[in-house]
Amino acid sequence: MSDIFDETEENLRADKWVAIVKTALPIVGVALGGALVLALGVWGWQKYEQGVSNTSSETFQAALDAGNKGDVAGAKTRFQTVAKSGNAAYKSMALMELAGMAVTDNNTAEAIKDFDQAASVAPTPALKDMAVLKSAMLQIDTAKFDDIKARLTPLAKDGRPFAPLAKEALAIAKLQSGDVKGARADLQVLTLTLGTPDGVKQRAGDVIQAIDSGTFSAAKAALALPEAKAPAMPQMPGMVPAAQ
Question: 0.70 exceeded by the pTM?
Fold first, then answer.
């Protein structure tokens, strides 16, 4: 008799599990289907991004080529195309190129706007910091020191891609605001810090000498040297360097 009850109990257990499996199958199917759709979606997006990247690269290079040949209008049009529809990296670089053109045209306000936009879309710390640094350097003569400090202080932290240049720019801003003593101290640190690029050390030393000689105007002139420009555009894989 007990065997009959045991068999019945086993059948009931089996029926219960069959019912659970039947109920779960549609859910599992939906989940698997959703996973497949998600996987296909990711794959499709990656292919799309690759296509955008390739197109951006080609258009950006065409813009550089046009600029090297003296076709400024053609270069600008192509950079504008990349800035509107390129992937993040090339969009950021195109905006910085457009900002450089605005500087050449003495349109500082447009250049600052382009640099700030380049920073906002930059996908890497190097591109972002470069754009912020270039924007800040355009505003050193006109903006309040506190505004420049707010922009550059994060960039000046150790480990950031352009920390020495950001520290140099902060010293420049102090000097421009009249804080000669603070600027000299910051520049002195730069000359003594291991890892500071030779160009930065040289400029810092020149300005310190100008400050010590009492020729404040000479110090400001030293800061305006072409060598004190922000870093050049980094090269993307497969890009031909632009003519300097």
Answer: no
